[in-house]
Design the sequence.
DNA sequence: GTATCCTCGATTTTT
DNA sequence: TCGAGGATAC
């Protein structure tokens, strides 16, 4: 999506552009029929209520697959059709560019060109940028400020650390970046950082370094992502007249995925909502899975308190998935305590039960899933409608390898994205310097790429001069050429580089930006560098560079393109051939597939041990929400898998089925006994020791035959706890843990000698229900399920 | 400036 | 176990 900023001339806040008003008026006329407007067609009563409740704060609790986007877009159409506001008077915020793009498209379908006038539809960050550019001087910036990405941020922090004589081995820049991000997420300026936290970096210098970093940003006329939220907040607080302008401007405000907002975003919204108070937030507390990067579920849980008189509408009719899938998901998520309470109601038949199956190890898990996909394919299912959702990306590899063997087309979502590739970042760095010669970080990135013999020594001279004279790096380089300090060789190379940049910069308004980009890449020797490179990726990198130039075409100029890139960092990739999708659960939020495979439901992996260790119960609940997100991606088939052995950090570990399996309702789940392909796999393992397939089925069965499991069945109860009912968690998590670990044991006592297929012989040192701690003679202490060992 | 050795860490990720 | 990234040696 080309950024709107690039296309729309800056409008004046106080004088609405008449052109846009015309569009709105036409849209309104087109949409205003005699009776109920067409766009209400097919909305259920709750959705309609959410659309029609226009005045005052509104929270729409939209469960998975309940038509959330539809409500948002129809609401916009309704506001415009009633003439309550013009397109540019609606603030509509999303989290990702993808969501913003989709929203714009769908509004476009409803309204046609009126969607074009929606200048304030975008991500928190893009809207923040827009606001900040308008009032840059009030924030000590010029309106052409650059936006640093994570890489630039780290580079700058490294500079700060070295200038402050802090050993960056002991106190890595990454760690400081992480801390600063955390503070910014919570809208803390350097002076607001709690003393205790500042203490945690570089012997108490955390807040001080943060302050120095901020000062450096200002010097560079740059902001980081956090500033795009923080600076507008500061602006609004310190300049009530500015805030007032936006209050007048935004008649209606809509926020998507409200459960993902962090403190800064929340404050930002609160300030703006002091105007009209027509703030509609849509979200689902049960799908809050980004706590680890600053999202505060509390924001959504507290909505009614924060915005007095708020109306809450629950969307619970799910049009996506069949009954068993929804029942399973609802029952699972009901184990969480901190939630607003909401149960998905199926609108169609029960369909297929959710299946749960176990595999001996992760390799077998991948083989079985691969086989199942092939069989679905023979039955005529499209691969595009099949997804494998994993907890952690290392799980993907096994599937990829298997699918390559099978010749099964797949696509991996995630991974290094287009704009993060080294060659793209290098090319962009060149263009950034051309567009804004003061961009020191970009200059630093490419001043010796391709290698031109400018080493650290020359760089240090430039940096020192830049500091001493308080000028940008490029300017410092220029001055250095006039002085006596440079050796002849670097002098001539540097001179050529500086002159090249002067030449390119002069061309900015003279030739098309795509042609300029090509010229820069050519003359700088950058393309050459890859042409000469004999490595395997070089060809692909050259392709990427061409793709980059192509992607610049829709933009008016270089500046517009760079703005887009700094915020978007994401390139559309075409649909391509029919293929299975492999991605993380996090990446799957908002998507849906007919068939969803959910491998790796094992304790330690899912829920992830680290999440439990770091965040305790809150961590567990977020993991459970992730499981809920996973299951609710499925329209017709959800297939959960676990493996009893998995290689973690290169070492085989035996694993126990996830507690989340215990939390699925038996009535909606089929436990699959693995087909008899045991031992028929790759590698030398398996098969030879004559184990029966029940070796695998058994631990699973025993897990199910627990008091916790039975209690879970009894607690299934009616599907809906009723609006507003806060389910206090029908069963305690601790209870279930104890329950599943007090399952009947296969009868090994302390001191018994046992044999395990992977770990060999050992002695039982502890018995905890059906889980044994065994001191293996060779493999050390391990926890295993009793049915995996035999009496030795 | 580049090759090789070694050490460390190993969920999730957007802007 | 394996890979990236930094440090060291040439």
Sequence:
């Amino acid at each position: 999506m080309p950024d709107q900023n690039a296309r729309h001339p800056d409008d004046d806040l106080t004088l609405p552009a008449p052109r846009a008003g015309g569009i709105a008026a036409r849209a309104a006329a087109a949409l205003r029929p005699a009776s109920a407007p067409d766009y209400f067609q097919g909305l259920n009563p709750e959705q309609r209520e959410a659309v029609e409740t226009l005045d005052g704060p509104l929270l729409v609790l939209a469960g998975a697959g309940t038509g959330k986007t539809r409500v948002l877009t129809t609401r916009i159409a309704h506001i415009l059709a009633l003439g309550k506001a013009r397109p540019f008077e609606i603030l509509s915020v999303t989290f990702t560019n993808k969501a913003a793009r989709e929203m714009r498209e769908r509004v476009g379908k409803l309204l046609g060109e009126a969607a074009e006038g929606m200048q304030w539809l975008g991500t928190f960050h893009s809207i923040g940028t827009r606001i900040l550019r308008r009032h840059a001087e009030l924030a000590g910036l010029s309106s052409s400020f650059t936006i640093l990405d994570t890489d630039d941020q780290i580079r700058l922090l490294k500079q700060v650390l070295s200038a402050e004589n802090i050993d960056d081995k002991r106190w890595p820049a990454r760690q400081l970046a992480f801390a600063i991000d955390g503070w910014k997420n919570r809208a803390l300026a350097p002076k607001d950082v709690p003393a205790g936290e500042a203490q945690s970096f570089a012997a108490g210098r955390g807040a001080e370094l943060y302050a120095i970093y901020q000062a450096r940003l200002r010097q560079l006329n740059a902001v980081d992502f956090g500033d795009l939220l923080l600076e507008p907040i500061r602006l609004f607080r310190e300049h009530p007249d500015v805030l007032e302008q936006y209050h007048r401007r935004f008649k209606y405000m809509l926020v998507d995925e409200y459960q993902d907002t962090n403190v800064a975003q929340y404050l930002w919204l609160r300030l703006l909502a002091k105007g009209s108070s027509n703030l509609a937030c849509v979200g689902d507390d049960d799908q809050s899975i980004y706590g680890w990067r600053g999202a505060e579920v509390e924001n959504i849980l507290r909505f009614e308190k924060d915005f007095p008189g708020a109306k809450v509408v629950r969307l619970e009719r799910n049009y996506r998935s069949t009954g068993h899938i929804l029942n399973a998901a609802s029952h699972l998520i009901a184990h969480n305590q901190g939630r607003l309470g909401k149960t998905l109601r199926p609108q169609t038949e029960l369909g297929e039960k959710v299946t749960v199956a176990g595999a001996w190890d992760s390799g077998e898990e991948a083989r079985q899933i691969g086989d199942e996909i092939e069989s679905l394919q023979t039955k005529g299912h499209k691969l595009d409608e099949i997804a494998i959702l994993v907890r952690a990306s290392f799980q993907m590899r096994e599937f990829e390898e298997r699918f390559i063997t099978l010749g099964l087309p797949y696509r991996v979502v995630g991974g290094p994205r287009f704009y993060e590739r080294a060659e793209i970042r290098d090319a962009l760095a060149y263009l950034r310097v051309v567009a804004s010669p003061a961009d020191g970080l970009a200059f630093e990135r490419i001043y010796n790429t391709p290698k031109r013999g400018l080493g650290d020594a020359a760089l240090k001279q430039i940096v020192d001069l830049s500091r001493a004279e308080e000028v940008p790096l490029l300017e410092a380089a220029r001055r250095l050429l006039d002085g006596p300090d440079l050796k002849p060789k670097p002098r001539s190379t540097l001179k050529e580089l500086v002159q090249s940049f002067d030449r390119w910069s002069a061309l900015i308004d003279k030739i098309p930006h795509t042609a300029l980009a090509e010229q820069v890449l050519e003359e700088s020797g950058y393309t050459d560098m890859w042409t000469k490179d004999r490595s395997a990726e070089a060809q692909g990198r050259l392709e990427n560079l061409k793709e980059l130039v192509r992607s610049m075409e829709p933009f008016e100029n270089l500046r517009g393109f760079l703005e887009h890139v700094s915020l978007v960092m994401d390139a559309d990739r075409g649909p391509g051939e029919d293929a299975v999708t492999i991605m993380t659960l996090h990446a799957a939020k908002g998507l849906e597939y007919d068939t969803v495979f959910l491998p790796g439901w094992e304790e330690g992996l899912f829920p992830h041990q680290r999440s439990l260790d770091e965040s305790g119960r809150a961590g567990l609940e977020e993991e459970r929400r992730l499981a809920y997100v996973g299951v609710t991606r499925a329209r017709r088939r959800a297939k959960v898998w676990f493996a009893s052995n998995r290689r973690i950090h290169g070492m085989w570990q035996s694993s126990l089925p996830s507690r989340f399996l215990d939390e699925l309702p038996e009535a909606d789940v089929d436990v699959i006994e693995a087909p008899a392909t045991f031992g028929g796999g790759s590698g030398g393992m398996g098969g030879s020791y004559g184990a029966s397939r029940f070796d695998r089925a058994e631990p699973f069965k025993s897990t199910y035959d627990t008091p916790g499991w039975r209690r879970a069945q009894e607690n299934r109860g009616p599907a809906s706890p009723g609006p507003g009912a806060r389910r206090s968690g029908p069963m305690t998590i601790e209870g279930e843990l104890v329950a599943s670990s007090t399952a009947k044991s296969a009868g090994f006592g302390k001191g018994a000698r046992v044999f395990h297929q992977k770990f060999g012989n050992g002695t039982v040192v502890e018995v905890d229900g059906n889980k044994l701690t065994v001191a293996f003679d060779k493999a050390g202490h391990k926890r295993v399920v009793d049915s995996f060992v035999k009496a030795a």
Confidence is low (pLDDT under 50) at residues 1-12, 14-22, 675-746 of chain A. The CA atoms of residues 481 and 491 of chain A lie 6 Å apart.
